[in-house]
TrEMBL record:
The keyword Acetylation does not apply. This is Apolipoprotein M. One of its GO terms (cellular component) is extracellular region. Residues 172-197 are annotated as: Disordered.
Amino acid sequence: MFAVCAVALLCLMSVSHAAPVACEEFLRPLDQLDPRHLEGRWALVAGGFENPAFLKFFKRRNSSSINFSNVSATPSISFTHSAHSGGKCYSRHDSVSLKGSVLTFNMRDRLNLTVTFLDTSCHDCVLMRFDDESTKLQRLYLFSRSREVEMEEFKAQVQCLNMPPPVVMDPNKELCTQQPTGDPAAQTDAKTEGRKA
Ligand SMILES: *[C@@H]1O[C@H](CO)[C@@H](O)[C@H](O)[C@H]1NC(C)=O
Ligand SMILES: *[C@@H]1O[C@H](CO)[C@@H](O)[C@H](O)[C@H]1NC(C)=O
Ligand SMILES: *[C@@H]1O[C@H](CO)[C@@H](O)[C@H](O)[C@H]1NC(C)=O
Ligand SMILES: *[C@@H]1O[C@H](CO)[C@@H](O)[C@H](O)[C@H]1NC(C)=O
């Protein structure tokens, strides 16, 4: 706890764009990532953005989640992102490749992003830095198996990346249920959840 606060303070005091050494240590890519650890759904807990326009767009969301499946097919695995916005659920499915702690989208002409899994002290979390290769802008997302996580470390990490304060998601908002296409029962579930949120 103390270390986290000390680092945050260091970052506050840093006026240059170059991150202090402590910050670099703080945003270390994972040495080892067992793909099996990723399998299943993760709720978005908080996000940090370099681009203020994205921040505004993001605040319109009630909830957001990701789902890794078919991880045994590494390096090519299945990635679904769902967002709940304006009372509706939106999902997007992508095939991604995982090499070490770096994930890339297989259709790079559609999503030219490099995602790096970073170290976090939160045990049921994944911390992902999204580097947009076209705009060179970064985003930092904290996902968790639970909906609420201690935020101090993430806030400091966002600050280390010189981003404005993160958006913290409301843990009480319903997540979207992902329906496999063509399953009417699952679709009903998704609609019901949408109304409750
Ligand atoms: C899972 O991976 C296997 C082997 O690569 C592939 O044949 C199958 O289509 C994949 N399933 C899904 C749902 O992506
Ligand atoms: C959140 O959900 C409620 C109820 O579905 C909806 O009316 C509202 O517009 C949603 N807010 C956002 C930011 O999506
Ligand atoms: C992705 O971005 C990089 C860096 O700007 C660029 O070199 C590459 O051509 C882009 N790839 C696609 C498919 O747009
Ligand atoms: C995650 O994706 C898999 C494969 O599409 C699906 O079977 C599963 O129900 C999804 N999990 C959630 C919580 O949506």
